[in-house]
Write a structure and sequence with these properties.
With 755 residues, this protein is an alpha/beta fold. It is built from 27 helices and 20 strands. The radius of gyration is 27 Å and the shape is globular. Bound molecules: glutamine and zinc ion (ZN). The site of zinc ion has 6 residues, from loops. It comes from Williamsia herbipolensis.
């Protein structure tokens, strides 16, 4: 065993490529336009370029095996021989891998879910009684060899057995964590192979230790790392935690004979770390540079924190708090940023530079980096005093809106007023908002971006789209229409671009899952709505039809969840500011005659804190922000909300607290069971359980929809039931949408006749 302590590192880095090259290459391979050799060559180029950059920046230990063709949990399932049996028949390794990730015509993919409380999604391994684990270390060994050949001080990274099992799904009654003992010999074998191949250190990621996923994390740690540390033919072991505090798992880890522990000092705190006695023999990897947000580090404050830790461990290395997978590559790629704003930010490359600066200061003293410290202090001072960041006028308005209350009239009174105003049939039909984003729409948007057409021409084309979407819905016979959202690139960015306080990046892409990348806007200052954001579109749509057109807005929690948020005020403060802007929009829509307004909150569950004890406070402010954004309208204006999922978990009671008049949710895949969940918490407003799954290209038959509706009517009286698909239609083709909705309307008529 070796393991010379290092001083500067990162826990992982982005892999999609600074120009999203990997996305394009993988998609080209899927489309059959390129072969595996080309794909592998591009992947190697990207990895090598990334390694060289981290090395040149001055890191003295560099993570490898953080590359992935799709997802690191899927890679771990391959490493441990735990792919589901249904893909076993696919002979080619890479094709089998992609089949597990995205399915084929014959086999279903693994489920996908959020990686802790980030916007990255991982594939959920399935562990059943027939799973027999076996070690397949080719990928990690190849990437280690590749890095060592470049002369890079490479530290292979693998997901640890505790996290792997706690995040896996048990099939046929298996509790994955019960299989822990079967994995330990595989990890021992892996460690010895890595040592043989030349690794000095290995990083074993155990982020599950910062959650409530298991009731005895300390016990698990003692079992696993007590055992793995006993081996002698192994690299030094760094157990990495991130996204929160280790709590009782920290002393347990420190008591084992592993060599290093990485802690998240951004989400977690330094105090408990400083007081763990057994750390004195270990390398402490201090995650002080935020790997998840885009703000420049306060180097001075970081040095002060690091100073409190110096005596508590044998040595201290500086690191990002987690992989920089969650932030864009580099500020160099943003040309539209003004210099002031730019000076407040740090993307992936800038974060690595911050790590190196801090490590240099620890080694050579503060004076050795005084220029960097000065530049940092100036930027932070500018940020604190910038009028865009703090606007007292906005704050006063919001305080007044909060004081005015976030409650609407009693639900029954609202229902009566709305029934009278809207005169809708029983079990009304509607859709969730978006219609297919056709290639004409995408082309127009690209042409606008490339300045080939002007805003007027773009808007003219989008009005054409709205007109045909309205005509389609009238023809189908839907009761409540939508304008179809053709003008929206994205349901968050569209609003962020129209709000002061937000900045939309040009190239700030981050991986969301597989080849899908998102470009979260940056919330940096107090939020002000410059002008109405949606009114002309809804107004135009309404002018084309006598049926009611629903106004479409994104809710404050979802806008926050899908943005990089401020770190200089509590999240709820930002939530209230956004809510206040959305509230202004609802009031303007109402004044324009719009009778139904939907405020989508598909991300309500996403921001839920990882520890149960922190969840009630979050739900309180999240619910209040939604209510603030919707409570400015009269009783006769109907508020809808949409949530994208049916497993509410800890957010279930919040659904009733939102107090929307109508809540549409996913239900098709869970056979309407979600309605029982809503009943169990006393939800008494209307509900639109999705009657078919829009994630699949399959057109639902009338009979199936009728059956779903009858099941829904067993749980909910007709007066409270709406009929809709389970999400927006933007990813479907127009043909699929037309056929599916035709069947939906037919089913509605059949069921109405039975009432
Ligand atoms: N109104 C949005 C749409 O239909 C809602 C999308 C979502 O829930 N993610 O596309
Ligand atoms: Zn949805």
């Amino acid at each position: 065993m070796t393991g010379t302590p290092f001083t500067a590192t990162t826990l992982g880095s982005a892999r999609i490529g600074p120009n999203r090259q990997l996305k394009r290459a993988v998609e080209a391979y899927w489309a059959g336009r390129t072969d595996q050799a080309q794909l592998h060559a591009l992947a190697a180029d990207l990895r090598v370029a990334g390694l060289r950059e981290l090395h040149a920046a001055g890191l003295d230990s560099i993570p490898v095996n953080t590359f992935s063709f799709y997802d690191q949990m899927l890679d771990t399932a391959v490493l441990l021989g735990a792919l589901p049996p249904r893909v076993a028949g696919i002979a080619d390794d890479l094709d089998r891998y992609f089949a597990a990730a995205r399915g084929t015509g014959r086999v279903a993919p693994l489920e996908m879910t959020k990686w802790f409380d980030t916007n990255y999604h991982y594939l959920v391994p399935e562990i059943s009684s027939s799973t027999t684990f076996s070690l397949h270390p080719d990928k990690v060994l190849d990437e280690l060899t590749e890095a060592l050949a470049l002369g890079v001080p490479a530290r292979p990274v693998v997901i640890g057995p505790i996290t792997f099992l706690l995040l896996s799904k048990g099939v046929d009654g298996t509790a994955p964590i019960d299989r822990l003992d079967e994995l330990l010999p595989l990890y021992r074998e892996l460690l010895s192979t890595l040592r043989e191949t030349g690794a000095d250190w290995v990083q074993i990621d155990e982020p599950a230790l910062v959650t409530d996923l298991h009731d005895d994390p300390a016990g698990l740690v003692t079992r696993v790392y007590g055992e793995l540390a006993r081996a002698t033919d192994r690299p030094a072991i760094l157990v990495a935690s991130y996204f929160g505090d280790l709590r009782e798992a920290l002393p347990a880890l420190a008591a084992t004979d592993i060599e290093g522990i990485a802690v998240d000092l951004v989400r977690g705190t330094a105090d408990p770390v400083a007081s763990v006695p057994a750390l004195t023999s270990k390398l402490l990897v201090a995650g002080i540079v935020n790997g998840r947000n885009i703000w420049r580090n306060d180097l001075s404050a970081s040095l002060a924190t690091l100073a409190t830790l110096l005596g508590s461990a044998a040595s201290v290395a500086v690191s990002t708090s987690c992989s920089t997978l969650h932030v864009p590559y580099s500020l160099d790629r943003e040309s539209g940023l003004d210099d002031t704003l730019r000076s407040w930010l740090a993307f992936g490359a800038e974060k690595v530079a911050e790590v190196v600066t801090l490590a240099t200061a620890l080694r050579d003293g503060r004076d050795s980096v005084d220029q960097a410290l000065d530049a940092c202090a100036r930027a932070l001072a500018a940020r604190r005093s910038d009028p865009r960041v703090h606007d007292d006028g906005i704050r006063e308005r919001i305080a007044a809106a909060v004081d005015a209350g976030v409650a609407r009239g009693p639900a029954a009174q609202r229902r009566a007023a709305q029934d009278e105003r809207l005169g809708l049939p029983v079990v009304p039909t509607t859709t969730i908002g978006s219609y297919p984003q056709t290639s004409e729409i995408r082309r127009a948007r690209a042409a606008l971006r490339a300045n080939e057409i002007g805003v007027d021409e773009y808007e003219r084309r989008m009005r054409g789209e709205v007109a045909s979407i309205i005509a389609l819905q009238e023809d189908l016979g839907l009761d409540v229409l939508v304008h179809g959202e053709p003008e929206r690139n994205d349901m968050v960015q569209y609003f962020a671009e129209q709000l002061d306080g937000f900045f939309a990046t040009e190239n700030g892409w981050v991986q969301s899952y597989g080849t899908r990348c998102v470009r979260p806007p940056i919330l940096y200052g107090d939020v002000r709505r410059r002008h109405p954001m949606t009114v002309t579109w809804i107004d135009y749509a309404q002018s084309l039809t006598d049926r009611p057109v629903k106004g479409m807005l994104t809710g404050p929690v979802t806008i926050l969840a899908w943005s990089f948020v401020r770190d200089d005020q509590p999240l709820w403060d930002s939530a209230n500011q956004i809510a206040s802007a959305i509230r202004d929009e609802t009031v303007d829509l109402e004044a324009a005659g719009v009778g139904i307004i939907q405020v989508d909150e598909p991300a309500l569950r996403e921001l839920l804190p990882l520890r149960a004890e922190d969840q009630p406070a979050y739900l309180r402010w999240a619910v209040d922000a939604f209510r603030l954004s919707t409570a400015g309208v009269a009783d006769a204006t109907q508020i809808h909300t949409h949530l994208c999922y049916s497993e509410f978990g800890a957010v279930i009671s919040a659904i009733a607290d939102l107090d929307a008049d109508v809540t549409s949710i996913e239900a098709a895949r869970s056979h309407m069971e979600v309605l029982d969940d809503l009943n169990s918490i006393g939800y008494a407003n209307s509900v639109g359980p999705g009657v078919y799954d829009i994630h699949s290209p399959r057109v639902p038959e009338v009979g199936e929809i009728v059956a779903s509706l009858r099941a829904a009517l067993d749980a909910v009286p007709a007066q409270r039931l709406w009929i809709n698909p389970d999400c927006g239609l933007k990813t479907r083709s127009t043909d699929e949408v037309e056929a599916s909705l035709r069947n939906l309307v037919t089913a509605a008529h059949i069921v109405r006749a039975e009432l």
